Amino acid sequence: MTTSPHEGEEKEGPVIRDKRRIDPETGKVRETGGTPAPEPQAKGGAAASDAGDSSLKTQLAERLADLQRLKAEYDNYRKRVERDRVAVREQALGQVLSELLPVLDDIGRARDHDELTGGFKSVGDRLEAVTGKLGLERYGQRGEPFDPTVHEALMHSYSADVTETSVADVLQPGYRIGERVLRPARVAVAEPDPNGGSGEEAAGEE
Fold it and tell me: Are residues 119 and 175 in the same domain?
């Protein structure tokens, strides 16, 4: 007896799948199978994106700090170079002008004795003008407060006419360039005398 290849197998009819999302019996939304909703993946992706942004911001902040540090170092270097340049210029200029101080002293003494006349006066005035433009300043005036950093006391006296240690007389003017003293002013110094008397002595003597 020949058996048909399809005998013994259950015959299957057409398969009908209800894809309606609303259950007609309950009226509720059916849960669909298949691939899970992408929300967890989206959350994971957002977390990874936030971590990447945070890392990028950290790197940018570090690079910005590096640039700021380099800029500060460069600014300090530039200031040091400028200070050194000014110091070298003043030192070289001071050496040249120091050689001219005896000449300027002669001109000053000639002026004090009314001997600065004629062509000598013209040359003297010109020399003083040129050295002044180069920054050379003459200082030391009678009556100004005594300052041991810029004055050299050669004589000392007491006087009832002063209320503080002062320059009583300028024996030789001082010269400076800016804050640099080329030669201190050599002066006679007067101090207040509490007894109202007066006297004079060489500096350094009892």
Answer: no
